[in-house]
């Protein structure tokens, strides 16, 4: 990129071409006052404060934010004339600005205040005319005070550009201009709080803060968000040992200061009164508080008894998608070496059993995304079976950045119509018919080959089994695929052409694909597509197309990396391999008996239901409501004699347990999380658990091991991570202290070591599509998905999130609803062969006919007890109707 | 040499017999006359609505050199007003500098003449209620 040299305030600086003076100065530590310019947003040039003296060919006054740099330019920031101008601008701004600094939460970090102070403004020459506009409090989270607004337009741009919602804009003209929603309707947006983060004054206020502190009183510490798998860096603002609010920093973390509603406002669960306070032991059907010592003594005695009677195999362990890597590593080490069982699993693996091996395979073959940032750098984005806005809102923000900055093309394919806000120039939204993912991907591959969209000669030379491809696709016709998928042939051709367009392509494989019964073949087909696109790309060092596998929770990736799965030891080394076993035995100093790695059944709940498990150790999970078949889990729990649950709250699962151990939340513990882009990030301990006698999971396991007669000498998660570094090959090179400054990308180090000249391999699969048996009694298919406002147990204890979306809806197609005379808001019963649930109906055009969509993240709605699998046949009727 | 001694004695005797020259106050029977700018304990003032005038801006706590003030703000759910849920003043630490009074944007803190602060406990923290009661006792009309 061409660089430009210029002089700002006698300092010579070098910046890329096209930068404006404001940004150039900002990057080089020269301060120019300004209210409307924000590095993340487009220029607006509304506040008129950043006037500087610019000498190019002649000397003139320019606005720094709107003037690009040129070679040899001389900029003076503080000439007397400029300062005089600025002061008068400020006087105008302050003439009608409400003087409510003492009660304004922004005071102390307010740009307007800072500039007033810096320019040493004396009382204004103008008569102050206050606007006395009423404060808008139409939602439980954000408050808009127009009296404090300086009309800088930052919130308007942030809403439009970053979040893509465009819920707010300037209303009216001239002196009457104000920021607000169309027709002054209540704010209806995703409540990402972006407006709040960029507002230079106190117009937007966080209502969840409730005046519980002032900016200068807060201690700000960065940590990682505990909700979705994006792994945003959040800044917790604490005062006297309690978390008061969450802010973001534009310069740290992969999210660049963008957050979603959960990250920014869903922190109240940390200080929830409903948290578990002491260990609980169930006696005669009721929980009794006990001391840690007694509880651990009791558990170890019971577990020892089970081991003596039935062997370690009779104990199962479920690791957590929400706990740190250290907790999970120790958990599987404890289960394997102390309890002597390999019956361990995690819910991510249970829900999508084929994902781990395929994910690791694609990392090794260099076709997996090595970081979430690849979305941002992509020129073509292909979201396959994922609802970005709901599942990974900040990744959606990254996609919008790619659309804005790289002019990226966007292809979204899903069963339902997905609302992704933000429009690309080439914007394709496809809905394929239920179960036809593989024919769709195959059609794309077929079109790519037929139309020679890639360099076939090159592909042939770099793919070792390329000759199999024409054979496999001989009988496959795009026309038939078009009929099966319900996507027109022309549309598929356009999609294929867009995909193979020059530039990087990021394919996001969503949860709908990963959890599908045909997930293995679908992912393989996607990998083939990636391989084809990469094989023909010029060797520029990095792959052209990359696959990003979406994960649901903050550490869904980490729990699998740490080997809380029966098939793998930490770092995806297979347990069936004897050499891997010996290696781990040497590292841990234990001896495994061979029979523990033999498995009768893949699924831990199936084992339990068959009565093979006598004890179950669950760390930080609530499978009863988060596993697709709740009834199966319930039966499994009833069959299992002794259950230990370790959690923050008394969840549905914990209520069935025999012993419940309280653990700490993310703000109270240290460790590392791995996000879905395989980026390991460190979270910091910010507060001490107050009012609860809770311990971090790793500490509980250590003490537990001690009671079982083993000694784990870990003083902190740092020690555990250093062991992980030596034991887990994919994490080698990780350093706990270095993580504080820089995140660790394990996928890039693994695929970086890949032999570049190695040939790609295609994994040809049959283009079969999933058929759901039409059932007369249960004519609908229940499809579940994620929700933006809720995730896991934590969100339901965060009042802000519950108040924004208190209710779960059953989304139905208009035609279906019409047939049954169901209207928006009617109570409907969804009944499967197992169970039924009553929900309010939401009639939309989003779901195709015959499919009813319910979000499964509302944990208090037992939708998973209705489900019998991934897709459940159900019947729907009005509540007051036939029963 | 004796002359200055006598001079001094004369003054002493004069003072001794003059009732107007007595400076010792009969405290506690007699209340001391305090100067108008005397700085006693910071007291919370009451506003027109009968509630504390304080808006929990925290400036007093910020400006306090001995860090003796703790303010915890909260929202009044009905009026959406900002009010101090907790206002504590550690009288042991207070140095009666009056910065809090000066910093207060709404004149909710005034140092009046409360100076009798001795206590039998080893702490002397005034909470919001106590600080407001001091003002209430004065029966100042608003």
Q: What's the short story on this structure?
A:
The complex is a heterodimer of chains A (883) and B (142). Chain A is an alpha/beta fold.
Strand arrangement in the largest pleated sheet of chain A:
14-13-26-25-24-15-16
Shape of chain B: elongated
Stated plainly, the CATH topology of chain B is called: Alpha-Beta Plaits
Strand content of chain A: 15-25%
Q: Which CATH top level class of the largest domain in chain A fits?
A: Alpha Beta
Rg over CA atoms of chain A: 29 Å
- What assembly state would you assign to the polypeptide chains in this entry? heterodimer
Please compute the radius of gyration of chain B using only Cα atoms: 22 Å
Secondary-structure element string of chain B: HEHEEHEEH
Are there runs of chain A of 5+ residues with pLDDT below 50, and where? none
Report the average pLDDT across residues of chain A. 90
Q: How would you characterize this protein structure?
A:
The complex is a heterodimer of chains A (883) and B (142). The mean pLDDT of chain A is 90. Chain A is α/β, with parallel strands linked by helices and 883 residues long. Chain B has 142 residues and is α+β, with helices and mostly antiparallel strands. A 3-stranded antiparallel sheet of chain B has the order 2-3-5. A two-stranded antiparallel sheet of chain B has the order 1-4. The N and C termini of chain B lie far apart (65 Å). Classes of the chains: A alpha/beta (883), B alpha+beta (142). Chain A binds chain B through residues 101-103, 107, 135, 137, 207, 210-214, 216-217, and chain B through 55-59, 61-62, 72-75, 80, 82, 105-106.
């Amino acid at each position: 990129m061409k660089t430009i040299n210029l002089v700002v305030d006698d300092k010579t600086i070098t910046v890329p071409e096209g930068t404006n003076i404001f940004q150039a100065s900002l990057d080089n530590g020269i301060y120019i006052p300004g209210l409307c310019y924000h590095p993340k947003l487009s220029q607006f040039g509304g506040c008129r404060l950043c006037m500087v003296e610019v000498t190019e060919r002649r000397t003139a006054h320019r606005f720094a934010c709107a003037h690009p740099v040129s070679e040899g330019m001389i900029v003076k920031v503080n000439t007397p004339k400029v300062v005089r101008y600025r002061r008068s601008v400020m006087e105008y701004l302050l003439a009608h600005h409400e003087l409510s600094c003492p009660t304004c939460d922004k005071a102390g970090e307010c740009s307007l205040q800072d500039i007033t102070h810096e320019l040493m403004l004396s009382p204004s020459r103008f008569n102050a005319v206050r606007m006395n506009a009423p404060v808008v409090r139409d939602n439980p989270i954000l408050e808009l005070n127009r009296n404090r607004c300086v009309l800088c337009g930052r919130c308007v741009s942030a809403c439009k550009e970053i979040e893509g919602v465009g819920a707010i804009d300037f209303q009216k003209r001239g002196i009457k201009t104000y920021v607000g929603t169309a027709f002054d309707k209540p704010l209806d947006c995703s409540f990402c709080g972006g407006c709040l983060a960029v507002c230079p004054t106190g117009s937007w206020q966080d209502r969840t803060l409730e005046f519980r502190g002032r900016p200068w009183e807060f201690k700000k510490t960065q940590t990682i968000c505990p909700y979705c798998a994006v792994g945003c860096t959040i800044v917790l603002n604490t005062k006297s040992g309690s978390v008061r609010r969450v802010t973001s920093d534009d310069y740290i973390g992969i999210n660049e200061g963008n957050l979603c509603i959960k990250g920014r406002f869903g922190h109240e669960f940390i200080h929830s009164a409903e948290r578990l306070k002491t260990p609980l032991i169930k006696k005669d059907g009721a929980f009794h508080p006990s001391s840690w010592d007694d509880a651990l003594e009791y558990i170890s005695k019971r577990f020892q008894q089970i081991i003596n009677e039935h062997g370690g195999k009779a104990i199962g362990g479920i690791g957590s998608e929400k706990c740190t890597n250290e907790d999970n590593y120790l958990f599987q080490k404890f289960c394997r070496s102390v309890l002597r069982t390999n019956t361990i699993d995690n819910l991510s693996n249970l829900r999508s059993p084929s994902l781990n091996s395929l994910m690791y395979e694609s990392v090794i073959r260099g076709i997996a995304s090595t970081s979430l940032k690849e979305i941002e750098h992509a020129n073509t984005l292909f979201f396959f079976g994922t609802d970005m806005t709901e599942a990974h809102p900040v990744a959606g923000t990254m996609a919008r950045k790619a659309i804005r900055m790289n002019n990226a093309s966007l292809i979204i394919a899903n069963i339902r119509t997905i609302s992704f806000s933000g429009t690309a120039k080439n914007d394709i939204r496809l809905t394929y018919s239920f179960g036809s993912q593989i024919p769709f991907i195959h059609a794309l591959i077929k079109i790519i080959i037929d139309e020679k969209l890639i360099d076939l000669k090159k592909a042939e030379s770099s793919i070792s089994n390329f000759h199999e491809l024409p054979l496999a696709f001989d009988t496959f016709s795009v026309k038939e695929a078009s009929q099966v998928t319900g996507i027109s042939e022309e549309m598929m051709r356009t999609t294929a052409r867009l995909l193979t367009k020059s530039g990087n392509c990021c394919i996001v494989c969503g949860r709908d694909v990963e959890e599908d019964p045909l997930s293995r073949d679908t992912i393989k087909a996607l990998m083939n597509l990636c391989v084809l696109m990469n094989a023909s790309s010029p060797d520029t060092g990095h792959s052209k197309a990359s696959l990003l596998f979406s994960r649901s929770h903050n550490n869904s990736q980490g729990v699998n990396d740490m080997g809380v799965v029966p098939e793998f030891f930490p770092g995806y080394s297979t347990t069936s391999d004897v050499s891997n076993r010996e290696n781990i035995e040497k590292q841990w100093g234990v001896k495994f008996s061979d029979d523990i790695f033999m498995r009768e059944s893949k699924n831990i709940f199936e084992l339990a239901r068959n009565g093979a498990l006598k004890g179950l150790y669950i760390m930080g999970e609530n499978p009863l409501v988060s596993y697709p078949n709740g009834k199966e889990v319930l039966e499994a729990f009833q069959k299992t004699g002794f259950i230990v649950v370790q959690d923050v709250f008394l969840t549905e699962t914990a209520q069935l347990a025999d012993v419940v151990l309280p653990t700490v939340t993310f703000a109270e513990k240290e460790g590392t999380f791995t996000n879905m882009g395989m980026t390991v990030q460190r979270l910091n301990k910010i507060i001490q658990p107050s009012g609860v006698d809770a311990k971090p999971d790793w500490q509980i396991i250590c003490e537990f091991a001690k009671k079982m007669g083993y000694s784990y000498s870990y003083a902190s998660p740092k020690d555990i991570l250093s062991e992980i570094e030596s034991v887990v090959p994919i994490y080698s090179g990780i350093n706990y202290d270095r993580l504080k400054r820089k995140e660790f990308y394990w996928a890039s180090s693994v695929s970086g070591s890949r032999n570049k000249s190695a040939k790609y391999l295609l994994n040809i699969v049959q283009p079969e599509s999933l058929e759901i048996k039409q059932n007369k009694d249960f004519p609908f298919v229940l499809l579940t998905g994620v929700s933006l406002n809720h995730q896991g147990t934590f969100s339901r204890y965060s009042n802000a999130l519950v108040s924004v979306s208190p209710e779960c809806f059953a989304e139905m197609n208009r035609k279906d609803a019409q047939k049954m005379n169901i209207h928006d808001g009617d109570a409907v019963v969804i009944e499967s062969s197992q169970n039924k649930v009553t929900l309010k109906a939401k009639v939309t055009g989003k779901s195709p006919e015959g499919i009813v969509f319910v979000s499964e993240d509302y944990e208090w709605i037992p939708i998973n007890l209705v489900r019998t699998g991934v897709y459940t046949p159900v019947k729907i009727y009005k509540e007051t109707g036939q029963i | 040499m004796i002359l200055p001694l006598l001079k001094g004695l004369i003054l002493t005797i004069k003072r001794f017999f003059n009732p107007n020259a007595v400076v010792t106050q009969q405290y506690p029977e007699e209340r001391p006359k305090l100067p108008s700018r005397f700085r006693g304990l910071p007291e919370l003032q009451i506003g027109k609505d009968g509630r504390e005038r304080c808006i929990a801006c925290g400036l007093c706590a910020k400006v306090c050199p001995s860090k003796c003030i703790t303010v915890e703000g909260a929202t009044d759910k009905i009026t959406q007003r900002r009010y101090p849920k907790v206002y504590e003043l550690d009288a042991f630490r207070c140095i009666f500098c009056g910065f809090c009074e000066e910093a207060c944007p709404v004149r909710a803190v005034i140092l009046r003449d409360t100076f009798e602060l001795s206590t039998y406990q080893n702490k002397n923290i005034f909470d919001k209620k106590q600080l407001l009661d001091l003002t209430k006792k004065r029966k100042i009309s608003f």
